[in-house]
Structures are given as C-alpha cells and as structure tokens.
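Changelog entry: the Dipeptide epimerase record was regenerated in this release. Current contents:
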Amino acid sequence: MTIAAVRTHRLSAPLHTPFVTALRRTTTVETLVVEVVDADGRSGYGEAPQVWQVTGASVAGSEACVRELLGPTLTGRDADDLVARCTEVQRAVVGNEAAKAAVDVALHDLAARRLGVPLVRLLGGTALRVPTDVTLAAGDAVDLAAAARQRRAEGFDVLKLKVGTDAAGDLERVRAVRSAVGDGVRIRLDANQGWTPREAVRVIRGVEDAGLNVELVEQPVARWDLDGLAWVSDRVDVPILADESVFGVRDLVEVIRRRAADMVNVKLAKCGGLHPARTLLDLAATHGLGTVVGSMMESQVGIGAAASLVGAYGTTAVADLDAAWWLAWSPVRGGLRYDGATVVLPDAPGLGISSVTEVKMQTRS
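Regenerated structure tokens:
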C-alpha cells in the first residue's frame, strides 16, 4: 500500500502552569504534527516539538524539512515496508532529529493502524499503562515545596525537581521538597546543564551528606563537557543521568567509552524517532547503563509514542512522560490520558489519535 500524502499541522496550546528550567521558560506547547496518509485514507501521526534551547528545532524548520525533503522522499513508496522507510528518513538529511522523529513515528503509527493493533503491540509489547514522574518547575524553596505537596496529593510519587538556576540555593530547594513530601516519594534532580562541574559535585555531595535520598541527577553540566560529566560521575554516589549530552548512537558510545554517566535519557525528538530510540535502549542495556525514556513539551502524539516505547521495551527507572499532562487543553483528539501518575494508552489501533485541529501559534517557546 503506497503513501499518498505527507501533511503538516502547526499546533499551539497553553500550559496550565508555566514550565521553567535552567534553560528556558515557556507557557505554551508549540509543535508540528506530521500526518502520513496511505492510499486507503488511513493516517498515522508523529510530532516535532519546538525546543530552541535543547534541540534547536523550530516548527518552521521542521515543517520545511518535512515538506521539502522527507515528504517527497516517502510519497509513492510502500507504507508496509516500515524498516526501509524509516531508514530512508534517517539517511535523507543531516540533523533535523525532531522532523525525522515526527515522520518516523507517523510511519509506525500508520503501520499499527493498518494492522489494527495499538502501537505498543507493533513494537512488541502489551502494556497500556506506563508510570511517569512529574516535573516541579524551577522556583524558590517555598514555591517548590507547595508544588510538591500538590503533586503528591494528585497521586505522583516520583518528582523531578528542576534545579541549576542558582547553585547556592539548590540544596535548600531539595531540602524543602523532601521535607514537604516525606520519605515515601522519590525525588530526582534535573540541572539542565546549569551547573559547573565543581558546583555539581558540591550540591550533590551536600544532598548526600544531608541524607535527602535523591534517586538520580540529570545532566548536571554543559552537554558538550563530557570530561566534566565524567568528573562529576566519578566523585558522587548518586547516579548521573545523561540527557542533552546524548542525541544519537555516536554520543552514547562516547559517554560509554568515557564512563561519563550511569544512565541515559532517550527522547524521540532528540534521537530521530522510534527506530533509533530502540537502538539506544539496546546499546545502553548491553553496556550496563540505566535508562529513562523522556519527553520534550509535547502533545498526546509524541508522548503516546514514547509511552508505547516504554510499554514495549521497559526502562530501569520510571519514565519522564508528563509533558501532555501540563496542557490546559489540547488540539489533539483521542490518544492517551493520565490517571494520576500513569499514562494510559488507548486500546485502539496505532496511537488512537482521531484528529488534530491546527491552531495558530501566538508565542515562541
């Protein structure tokens, strides 16, 4: 069955709470949804989120890549030859991981729809319920403690605390959150590259010495500073999770070679989709690295694909898939829902997306 068309939809939706990290502050999701349509009129969907400060991807750039290169590459080709199509997408352009991820996921979604099975089953799994953490946006200690209590009341028992905006005050922030939620909640930290190596060691050792029981620390130093990442990892006991330092296989190989981190965060929009993400998970497992599947600020489309990957492959730590939970409302119809701290995938073909409503973007993220 041939691919008849590849379409793009620009979407924008507000968040119910501002999302603040050491890299950015945003109040909206700005994203591109790609729709791959077969000759029978079935559609598969994928997503390319705009995240200037992490991937460098923009909606306009991803749309240009899809319309001018990836779409024409696929149109008229056999939709059922999934591995070949995904390989062509990866080889068609340098970089542009978000655009490639959107097309890769749309191809997988379409293949699952054509078989009449959920995407997780196409990937070799059966789990339709995937636990997730929830992020506490960067802020002062008082605000973070209040947010932690609220998220705990909403059923989340793994909290991802954004730090890295002020190393001098980060220990007090962690202490305030731990005091607010008690010992029964897992706390993980994400510095989003915000610390120097020395700051990272000082803060993490302070957390350890205070007995604050932090599960892991994500990307403490600049993405390019693998020597610094390794220096930190060698001097603390808390596991270090590489995120922005690892986009693709070559990055992960270098992290493994330098023993720079204990874990890796695999994100579809960073690595280029489900096809390369599975390679990263396999490579990490082979070399004894822990794994997390994470997300950018995405809708049900991107999060549904990532959750399907976790449902099929599993990870060593709870996934980071709360992004669509932050939406005040969504232009996407169908797909996943949240049940407290669980992503619930629909027992429907593919991602279960019925339609997307194009919404004009009002702001930049």
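The chain has a mean pLDDT of 93.
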